[in-house]
Amino acid sequence: MISSVGQSQYRELRHELAANPRTWLITGVAGFIGSYLLEDLLSLGQTVIGLDDFSTGYRANLDDVACLPSSRGGTFRFIEGDIRDIDTCREACKGVDFILHHAALGSVPRSIEDPLLATSVNVEGFINVLLAAKECGVKRVVYASTCAIYGDCPDLPLHEESSGNMLSPYAATKLTNEVYASVFQRVYGLQLVGLRYFNVFGPRQDPNGAYAAVIPRWINNLLSGDSCQIFGDGETSRDFCYVANVAQANILAATAERSLGESEVYNVGCGRETTLNELFRMIRLGLVGLQPAIASAYPAYASFRDGDIRRSTADINKISHDLCYQATHSIAQGLGQTLEWYVEHSAKSALVEESSAAV
Fold first, then answer.
1. Torsion over CA: 85, 87, 92, 98 (sign)
2. Is the pTM of this model over 0.85?
3. 3-state SS assignment for residue 274
4. Backbone φ, ψ for residue 20 (5° rounding)
5. SS3 for 186?
6. Counting CB atoms within 10 angstroms of each CB, which of 7, 87, 177, 301 has the fewest?
């Protein structure tokens, strides 16, 4: 849990933002992280501009946020467009104080299948955002990076100076972003902060498709009575980080008054290692009260996937020291809230299907 001092400071920051709203641009706003950031900022009465082309995000995520009573205190304007179009980026950046850049093709397997597309979106699109931010006088850009940059580094926990052989084009594109961020800050004076996300999870994360993240996919499979697949022996580990922790990191990084170094990068995680076998048991236990038959469910094991790293845990000392970040939600707490959301929306979907069938 967050320390009492850090909790107090973050609470004061949120009060200050509510009293003095800023204007924010969220790229990739229709994605699961982007939509959570939107929800959180609107609850603080902020003005938010959202940019998305729905290549990986969903209109349903924006509709879901719009239905929340807590989201009605702010102002939201949506721009449908592609970050690979510089004019679209310029339009989105007008009058913006802070940018939270989350538009990307974020899948390791997808980047291995199509490295050209991953580079086009993740690198060329990122440069467009930086150029538009510079031209429009944006105060600071906070951008999503990834722990995949550490590759096969054997040192745990992973700190910002750790290095290993990167295992995917996706990781290479994110490291390239960090290089460009450093150059833009040095050459143009644009303030940038990179956040190396570990395995983020939470409501509205897509459970479907070939590139679905493990937590929403397993929840969906268990609720549907389908088997859950584990690549490898299940002892592969990750630092699973609830999305509320990510929102905290973004707000702290964007609004930090202290002088930050040249294009700082920070790990964002919980600092705890969880194996896939442990994760499966936690999800199964959380759902068994809803469907007792889930208690007898066991995963199916398959071969290891190309590009997957064996173990991953974040060292969060740097972001805790510089930005007073501490994870407010453990994996167990985050899973509890995530399961509630998926169960509720699964029930709503079932009702919609029944109504449609009755027509």
1. positive
2. yes
3. strand
4. -130, 80
5. helix
6. 87
d(CA 291, CA 202): 21
Six-digit token string for 41: 């900022």
Gap between the Cα atoms of 56 and 30, Å rounded:
8
**Under 8 Å CB-to-CB from 41, ≥6 apart: which residues?**
24, 26, 48, 74
On the CB side of 88, how many CA atoms lie within 13 Å of its CA? 16
**First-to-last C-alpha distance (Å) of the chain:** 49
CB atoms within 10 A of CB 233: 11
Q: Are 24 and 100 in contact (CB under 8 A)?
A: yes
**Domain range annotation of the chain:** 4-198+243-269+313-329
Closest CA to 148 of 176, 126, 189: 176
Dist. CA 334–CA 179, nearest whole Å? 32
> What whole-number distance in Å separates Cα of residue 140 and Cα of residue 191?
5
Report whether 46 contacts 74 (CB < 8 A): yes
Cite the active site residues. Answer: 170
Q: Which residues contact 334 (CB under 8 A, 6 or more apart)?
A: 201, 202, 240, 241, 242, 243, 244, 245
Amino acid letter, residue 198? F
Rounded distance between C-alpha atoms, residue 141 and residue 26, angstroms? 10
Summarised one tens digit per residue, pLDDT across range 29-75 is 999 999 999 999 999 999 999 999 999 999 999 999 999 998 888 99
**Would you say 202 and 32 are in contact if contact means Cβ atoms under 8 Å apart?**
yes
Burial of 117 by CB count in 10 Å (0-12 exposed, 13-18 middle, 19+ buried)?
middle
140 beta partners: 98
Contact between residue 283 and residue 339 where contact means Cβ atoms under 8 Å apart? yes
Spatial contact of 26 and 77, defined as CB atoms under 8 Å apart:
no
For 206, which DSSP code?
-
pLDDT digits (tens, 9 = 90+) for 119-141: 999 999 999 999 999 999 999 99
